[in-house]
Amino acid sequence: MNTNSNTYTIVYASVMVVIVAFLLAFVSSSLKDKQNENVELDKKKQILSALNVNMEGADVAQLYSEIVKQEPLLSADGAIKAETGAFAIDSKIENAKPLEQRNLPLFVCQIEGATKYVLPVYGAGLWGPIWGYIALNDDKSTIYGVYFSHAGETPGLGAEIAAEPFQSQFTASPKHITRNGEFTSIAIVKPSKVDESRDYVNGISGGTITSQGVDAMLKDGLGQYVNFLKQ
Description:
Shape: elongated
Helix content: 25-40%
Number of strands: 12
Order of helices and strands: HHEEEHEEEEEHHEEEEHH
Largest sheet: 5 strands, antiparallel
Structural class: alpha+beta
Low-confidence stretches: none
Number of domains: 1
Strand order of the largest sheet: 1-5-6-7-8
Mean pLDDT: 94
């Protein structure tokens, strides 16, 4: 075959594309189990972070199994739909369903002999999805800890929802998601502003839309569990 011909060039390029595609598919398939394992491990870290657990040097998977005692699925009326399955739930998919059709994940945990409830929340920031986990004391009102993250908020601005200064506000002084027995959520307000109707924390300076996204995420995400919270 004439190596200078157009036919040779096309055949050569086609063969290389097929070979590279095969190799990429093989590598992806080989690493799939490891990738899934890493995703699950990261999710466990996020849940434990909401519980203020020190994971430095620890076996995260073992620590999770010791602390998280139950993973039931709830319905919007607060009843248990399934005794397990919470960990596998994708909040983005569930949030797209009507409330009465959702499977609401709940993580029942034990920290130093005390029961904590961890509720996942999911919402939208300025540039993409934001999400988090809210840990409540056994009174189902007082916040014990939080964890927030994002897909692509602006560094130094909206991305600060994932930083300790913002998250520590939820536990620096007792914050409650109910008042007089009624669900109120937690308000995210502009710095120097107040909200007399409910407990609040300061939003991110320069990250107004992301802060509003967190406010809506908490109101909608925790609001799904209002019947469970009243039990």
